[in-house]
Amino acid sequence: MTELILPSRADAASFLPKGAVVPMIIAAHGEQAAWHYLNFFAAHIRNSNTRAAYARAASSFFAWCEGLGLALPGIQPVHVAAWVETLSREGRSAPTVKQQLAAVRMLFDWLVVGQVVPHNPAAAVRGPKHSMATGKTHMPSREEAKALIAAIETGSLIGLRDRALIGMLLYTFARIGAVTTMRGGDYYQVGKRGWVRLHEKGGKEHTMPVHHTLEEWLDTYQKAAGIAEDRKGFLFRTGEGRTGRLTDKPLAQADAYRMIQRRAVAVGVETRLGCHSWRARGITAYLENGGLLEHAQKMAAHSSARTTTLYDRRGEDISLDEVERIAL
């Protein structure tokens, strides 16, 4: 697929994710179309992860259209529907196809408002049906979670950091993106109790009191790192090579994921864990201990209780017990 970035106004082009460029099918329609495409990502999509995902979807769609020899005004609903069908046949999951269709639909809405195209060809196209009762996130068992945390070396600064980070995911039900962007001032005291401030998706600011275990882990980590008074610096920071010291840079989500993977392997945890695994473990543990779903929803900053139930794995053990009843 031939693509380009217009040589002028590089500031607008910088809003595209790294490696993404304006599709030729857009640029061929004129400078107005190209800048409306750029402004969709610059002005309309604020979350960087969403921006990257939508840019990939748009590039995929327009590359497919270009392969058919289509021009921008010639794209019709039948073409969008055929592209969706192609994605499904290629083995893409239903949620992925629905997300990519949503990206293309939103982009064309923007182009219609900007009078680049007369109508939205994706407006009437339906994505594949998809319904989930339980999330796909792999969750450690209670024993696996305890073993992994117990194995973290607390004699090193990196170990204290990792324990505090995992604890933040476990005890606050936070997303990893909200945790890695925390500043020192996002952990603060209200009376004698510590509180955390989490900046979640959609610009939502979520605050909640800290579990006493997490409070101990955070205090120990901050004291050892000498960052307890640094309110503006990042709370969870990268290590400085093999020195055991910390830098002033934030720990990346990918590094947190690799850390959890590495520690899981070290203690022989068979479940494939990720950052979200601790969110599921925390919500499930809370509900197992008599917590209420509506309270879990608020603690997890979910807009809908249906989302919270995806992290509730209490029924998995029951299902396994019933399956084991099958015997000849």
UniProtKB/TrEMBL annotation:
For this protein, the record's Pfam families field holds:
Phage_int_SAM_1, Phage_integrase
Q: Which GO terms describe its biological process?
A: chromosome segregation; DNA integration; DNA recombination
Gene3D superfamilies reported for this sequence: 1.10.150.130, Intergrase catalytic core
* UniProt xrefs under InterPro entries: CB, DNA_brk_join_enz, Integrase-like_cat_sf, Integrase_catalytic, Integrase_recombinase_N, Integrase_SAM-like_N, Tyrosine_recombinase_XerCD
Recorded GO MF terms? DNA binding
The entry's keywords: Chromosome partition, DNA integration, DNA recombination, DNA-binding
Domain Tyr recombinase per the UniProt entry, residue ranges: 135-325
Domain Core-binding (CB): start-end pairs: 32-112
Query: How is this protein named in the record?
Result: Integrase
- This protein's species is Lichenicoccus roseus
